[in-house]
Amino acid sequence: MSARNHAEWIAPPKLAEGEWVDSRIYSDQAIFDEEIDKIFKKAWIPVCHESELKNAYDFRTMTIANEPVIVARGKDMQVRAFLNVCPHRGNMIERRPSGNFAAGTPSGTPKRMTCMFHAWQFDMKGKCVYISRQEEGYQDRLKKEDVGLRELKCEVYFGGFVWVCLDDDIDMTVEDWAAGALDCLAPSLNEEPLEVFHYHKAIIPCNFKLWHDTNCEFYHDFLHYHNRVTGFNDAYFARKNSGFKNGHINVGSFEVQYDNYEGFHSREELSFPHLPPNHWYMIDMFPGVNFNLRGSALRCDLMTPLGPDKVMIEFRGLGLASDTAEERQTRIDHHNSIWGPFGRNLHEDLLAVTAQGSCMNPSAERRNILQGRHENETIHDENGMRHYYHEWGRWLNRSPSNPDHEYDESLMAEALNQPEAQQASA
Amino acid sequence: MAANGADTTERIKEVIYKTCIHQDDMNWNAWLDLCDDDYKYMIRAYSPEIQADMTYLGGSREHMQSLTEMLPKHNTDNSPLKRHCTVYSVDVSEDGKSASAVSSFVVYQTMLDGINSHVDAGESRLFLVGRYNDKFSIDGDSVKFTEREVRLDTRRLDKGSHWPI
Questions:
Q1: Which of A104, A116, A227, A298 would be a feasible disulfide site paired with A221, CB 3.0-4.6 Å?
Q2: Looking at the domain assignment, is residue B57 inside a domain?
Q3: For residue B3, is pLDDT > 80?
């Protein structure tokens, strides 16, 4: 048989359950809405880096699961997170992407978060400190202490990333949530303070999981000329994909041969602490976060789903806060020559997922998307994606291969490599 | 301005506009022929998110040469880019040996293969907005770029590009 007819095309592939997914998980509005409610409102999300909030009264704004969020550093230098929503009329309190509250605003006084709409003011701990014409309007029926901001769970962890969770009832710290997935990079990132030097965003017409899949599988290195010529040796093919509890994975390191790409050079001189020269680790965290350390520069991707067929990806690049100007510029060049918006690899990755998205629009017929490669959990094994969808199935109680059915973990045994299955259910 | 100064200003404008045509045509060698051996190219932007100046792409003439020569080996969005540029100011040094210029530009992308070509091909979209901050060396009738800073306003860059702007 060569090309297939319709019935053959839509028939389940000759692979085990869990070795393919139904493309509706990338396009269905109801599934997307469930993902927002059941996953993104429950998970720890690294919304920014502490170097974006260096000084007291600095703030950053962002969105988690369609909710506006503000992160601010108090006078006590503690970083706190709140819903960026005024408790009065539901207006967004701070509209800028970043700034500092030490200066006043047209409607407010210095050192306060002020809602411009009716001039209600809040301190850096979220306490309401001013209601305009309070007594005239509310008499003694409503007081400032009744209308504080909604504070969110917030931790600074793993090289200074600021993690926020919308769920007050989450019963784990970020360390618990990471479940060891971050350990491979922790010595390199925790040795000395880091600093963000790059930020840009992309809004791509595809489901957020397609970007996460691409970060989880290296089989797509055939897309990248750069990776083929600087990798694709015995050490590359021996890199291990390891699954961790809560759906996280990481990809083991090897030494990249940067000199094999014309115009590129070794990054040895600026290796992150404790990282062997030119090594490259990757961590993918459930549900849509990626940490990627290539020798001299750290990249972090944060996915914010905007719809079943739309995702915003924020790309950050980080170096050491102690960098000299010359070192910093070199790190920036290293980062952006591959991962910048005009770099060699990022454009190719984004092009590929855009093309995937074009084939998985909400009205498209369902397709079988394969993730069935087994190569002893090495670099081109697709166990990383299978591990992710194992977790996804449990959170939504939907089978990734047939999302109309409840998730049945027992059907996944063959798809999941045994050691990873044991780790995941530990 | 003296007649010679006016001539120099016109020559500099001509070089800037020729660069746009060469880059639109992806005639990268013709672009680099207009650049000095010590040429420095940068795409930069200020991020209000991280409150920092960023360099999205940077390189010497040699680096840009190798980067453009490697393009055929890469998968890329082949949707053509078209630069619309207006030179706002040209300042020639007193000794007439160097100059700087500021130009405003927009870049349009006419879709070819970046998404679903059946639906999107032929549609022109605004791709980038920014300024060129250029520096030149002048030697007689010869005007060469010594530096170009592509200063972008646009920071939501979606798929980005492999091509110099």
A1: A227
A2: yes
A3: no
Name the residue range of residue B87's domain. Answer: 3-152
B130: domain CATH number is: 3.10.450.50
The rounded distance, in Å, linking the Cα atoms of B126 and B82 is 10
Listing DSSP states for B20-41 in one string gives HHHHHTT-HHHHHHTEEEEEEE
Task: Estimate to the nearest angstrom the gap between the alpha carbon of A336 and the chain centroid.
Answer: 19
Domain count, chain B: 1
Task: Give tens-digit pLDDT for A326-336.
Answer: 999 999 999 99
Q: How many CB atoms lie within 10 A of CB B75?
A: 15
Among B67, B35, B25, B50, CA closest to B146: B35
Could you report the per-residue pLDDT of B78-133, keeping only the tens digit for each?
Answer: 999 999 999 999 999 999 999 999 999 999 999 999 889 999 999 999 999 999 99
Q: Which residues make Cβ contacts (< 8 Å) with residue A205, sequence separation at least 6? A: A309, A310, A354, A357, A358, B115
CA distance A2 to B139: 66
Q: Burial, A366: exposed, middle or buried (Cβ in 10 Å; 0-12, 13-18, 19+)?
A: middle
**Check: complex ipTM more than 0.90:** yes
Residue from B44, B51, B115, B149 to probe the interface with A (highest A Cβ count within 10 Å): B51
Q: Which of B62, B74, B160 sits opposite A341 (nearest CB)?
A: B160
CB B43 within 8 A of CB B152: yes
Please give the residue of chain B at the shortest CA–CA distance from A359.
B116
Per the domain annotation, does B159 fall within a domain?
no
Beta carbons of B57 and A336 less than 8 Å apart: yes
Which tokens is A148 given? 């504080």
Residues on B contacting A at a C-beta cutoff of 8 Å: 43, 45, 47-52, 54-59, 62-63, 66-67, 69-70, 73-77, 114-116, 155-165
Instruction: Please report residues of A whose CB lies closer than 8 A to that of B160.
Output: 202, 340-343, 346-347, 350
Complete DSSP assignment for A138-177: HTTTS-GGGS---EEEEEEETTTEEEEES-TT----HHHH
Please state, in angstroms and rounded to a whole number, the distance separating the CA atoms of residues A75 and A191. Answer: 26
**Rg of chain A, C-alpha, whole Å:** 23
Crossing angle of helices A208-216 and A383-396, in 10° steps, is: 140
Q: What is the mean predicted confidence (pLDDT) over A62-68?
A: 98
Residue B161 lies in a domain: no
Upper half-sphere CA count for residue A339 (Cβ side, 13 Å): 27
- In whole angstroms, give the CA distance from residue A27 to residue A15: 23
B144 bridge partner residues: B137
Hey, is B90 helix, strand or coil? strand
pLDDT above 60 (res A312): yes
Say how many CB pairs under 8 Å bridge A and B.
119
Domains of chain A: 45-155 (2.102.10.10), 180-424 (3.90.380.10)
Identify whether B165 is part of a domain: no
